[in-house]
Design a protein that fits this description.
By secondary structure, the chain is of the alpha+beta class. Helices cover 34% and strands 26% of the residues. It has an 8-stranded mixed beta sheet, with helices on both faces. It has a 5-stranded mixed barrel with strand order 2-3-4-6-5. Strand 5 and strand 6 form a beta hairpin.
Length: 501
């Protein structure tokens, strides 16, 4: 016999449950209860996962008492014998039930199972005539009855919106999706291990803040009732981590959630994960070396290779990465020398000439940012550092001593996307105050993402912050690069989605 025709449902039935299928499964629920089997059974002690049974088959063949558990993904009944595949997190294993082994009552109940049901099975491994490693069942237990049928042909579904909304079904039906998130977890573990090994200390800073600082972004606003005051979900961890450098910590990092009230795209999700770290007595050259070594270490540790493929492009993570001045990169791609943009009027002329579409005010900083985004970033396939950014778009970076309109700042790109941002941090409180005032003027001109004045942070700097290198890496974008995923929503388990009507 083939698969039973009610075992899966098409995606068109996913949002509106099929009454027929639900009634059939609810009826089976009562059958199990009437025969003394709890359809949502208690604990089940596994001896092996499915991958271990297959891996260790030479030692387990014919051995009784092997217990595995998982979800039934295929089901084929041949009268007095039934084959099924049980899937757990590690993979899938064929199981085999026979009436002459289980007995009439237990076998009859086994035949009432549906695809999607979660079971525990105990038996002995053997190999079928076709060579497939299989577990012959001597005992079994229903652990969770699935009342809804799984979707049919979920893999390759064109409407990816449904996959993101019903991520749990995406994980069940697409093993490569589950593996992506296993790799993500290992990437974060490898980052922590590397930073710990070179002397960094992991810390935690507030998620709710009285001012939204450390980046140019619009915040989410909430309200604290007891204090009767607005608070902001953090848009960066930067300013609190720098306060720790002032306080005497010399190497700190935080991996945490960041919230920015911005648009949603393949590169942006309003809630994302960031690594930020700060090292006293270091500069942006040290941060470049740390960045390339960290990414190389993660690739070798998690993937076993420094060579990856992203969107069809072969990429080498091996250090050293090229360093290119931002001014030279923009001039090479557009013919525009950003040194010749003296004011916002010059910026407006260039924006008009090139047809740049800007939101908010047309400023020198906004135009430089857009030139980078449109003409340069997509061309940076191999890991590359763009260095020495204008002060207008680097409000927290130290000025270059020989070029006061330029800062010791870099961004790292790979696969045509930014993966890191870093500075020699500004530790001059007088200069910092003036930068904040410049940002305030940009806000007055319509730039809602410009940095706000943070008097407490300036006060901290006035107590003295040592020369410091700082680095931020977008974890989601790094995972995209290392897993060859085109959209940030492919590497976030539950991306932000508009509710369905």
């Amino acid at each position: 016999m083939g698969q039973r025709n009610e075992e899966t449902q098409g995606t068109e039935d996913l949002l509106v449950s099929s009454d027929t299928f639900m009634k059939q499964r609810l009826a089976k629920l009562e059958v199990f209860r009437e025969r003394g089997m709890n359809p949502f059974g208690g604990p089940f002690k596994r001896t092996h996962n499915t991958a271990e049974v297959i891996r260790d088959y030479a030692f387990l063949e014919g051995k009784e008492g092997i217990a595995v558990a998982g979800r039934i993904m295929t089901y084929r009944c041949h009268g007095k014998a039934t084959f099924a595949h049980v899937q757990d997190m590690t993979g899938s294993l064929q199981v085999y039930a026979r009436v002459d082994v289980l007995g009439d009552e237990s076998y009859d109940l086994f035949r009432e199972l549906d695809i999607g049901d979660i079971v525990g099975v105990i038996g002995k491994p053997f190999r079928t005539r076709r060579g497939e490693i299989t577990l012959e069942i001597s005992q079994w237990k229903l652990l969770a009855k699935a009342l809804r049928p799984l979707p049919e042909k979920w893999h390759g579904l064109k409407d990816v919106d449904l996959r993101y909304r019903y991520r749990y079904l995406d994980l069940i039906m697409n093993r490569d999706v589950l593996e992506t998130f296993v790799v993500r977890s290992r990437i974060v573990q490898a980052i922590r291990a590397y930073l710990d090994s070179v002397g960094f200390l992991e810390v935690e800073t507030p998620v709710m803040q009285t001012l939204a600082g450390g980046a140019t972004a619009r915040p989410f606003i909430t309200h604290h009732n007891a204090l009767d005051m607005d608070l902001y979900l953090r848009i960066a961890t930067e300013l609190h981590l720098k306060r720790l450098i002032v306080g005497g910590f010399e190497k700190v990092y935080e991996i945490g959630r960041i919230f920015r009230n911005e648009g949603i795209s393949t590169k942006h999700n309003p809630e994302f994960t960031s690594l930020e770290l700060y090292q006293a007595y270091a500069d942006y050259n040290d941060m470049m070396e740390l960045t390339e070594n960290l990414v190389y270490h993660v690739g070798m540790t998690v993937l076993g290779s420094s060579s990856i493929t992203y969107e069809g492009n072969a990429i080498s993570l091996t250090p050293p990465w090229p360093r290119i001045r931002l001014r030279d990169a923009i001039k090479d791609k557009t013919g525009v020398d950003i040194k010749e943009i003296k004011n916002d009027e010059d910026a407006a002329k260039i924006a008009g000439k090139l047809g740049l579409k800007l939101t908010g005010g047309v400023t020198k900083g906004a135009v430089v940012d857009k030139l980078l985004e449109v003409y340069v970033e997509p061309k940076l396939i191999q890991p590359t550092f763009l260095i020495d950014y204008p002060v207008e778009i680097s409000p927290l970076a130290k000025r270059k001593e020989d070029e006061p309109d330029t800062t010791y700042r870099f961004e790292a790109f790979a696969g045509g996307r930014e993966i890191a941002n870093a500075f020699s941090e500004l530790n001059d409180p007088i200069d910092q105050r003036e930068r904040f005032l410049q940002q305030a003027r940009a806000r007055e001109k319509g730039d809602e993402e410009a940095h706000v004045m943070d008097e407490d942070f300036i006060t901290a700097l006035e107590y003295g912050m040592p020369p410091t290198g700082g680095l931020g890496i977008g974890i989601d974008r790094l995972v995209m690069l290392l897993t060859d995923k085109p959209s940030i929503r492919d590497v976030i388990l539950f991306p932000t989605m508009r509710p369905r009507d």
